[in-house]
Amino acid sequence: MAYVLCTVCQALNRPRRKSCFQCGERIALQRDPERDWFLSVNDEVRRHPRIEVPLTGLLLGPGGQVTEPVAIQDIGMGGVRFRTNLWHGRGSKVRLRVECPAGAFEMQGHVLRTNRMIDGVTAFSCAVQLEAAGAEFYRFVEQMLAALPAAA
């Protein structure tokens, strides 16, 4: 079965859907039965490992004001994933303050993907590629990675 890619959130949809199951946007007719849509999903490889963490954070507006509290799901040298009640489209710029035992770290990046959550607690999970974060944040992540048990 061929799938249709949503041009807004990049979700894979069944070919007969008129709107995206994830973001609700209308799906443009773009059927390509020769392409295996799952191949690109299976080939995704992260450059940096992510660490699941139970941290809190704040989304910041352009002036540094708090726009929304978020729950950090995981962090890594290259990015952060957080749960939010607001939709953030692919490519959106975000500023984030992460609160952790080592202190508060501010960073900015752009949204790579946003997925609708099905747990009923929060609406979306956003994966952000970091563009700027302080040296202290990267040291914190390195320490957490070093503390992980080695993979067998």
Plain-language structure description:
It is a single chain. The protein starts with a strand and ends in a 5-residue tail after the last helix. The protein has 152 residues and is mainly beta. It has two helices and eight strands, in the order ββαββββββα. β7 and β8 (124-133) form a beta hairpin. The chain has helices at 37-42, 135-147; strands at residues 4-5, 12-13, 50-60, 66-76, 79-84, 93-100, 103-116, 124-133. Helix content is 12%, strand content 42%. A six-stranded antiparallel β-barrel has the order 3-4-5-8-7-6. The chain has two domains: 1-45, no CATH class; 50-147, Thrombin, subunit H.
What is the SS-derived class? mainly beta
* Proper CATH architecture of the largest domain: Beta Barrel
Strand order of the largest sheet: 3-4-5-8-7-6
Annotated CATH homologous superfamily of the largest domain: predicted glycosyltransferase like domains
What is the CATH C level class of the largest domain, in words? Mainly Beta
Number of domains: 2
Tell me the distance between the termini.
37 Å
**What is the strand content?**
35-45%
Under CATH, the topology of the largest domain can be stated as Thrombin, subunit H
Number of helices: 2
The run of helices and strands is EEHEEEEEEH
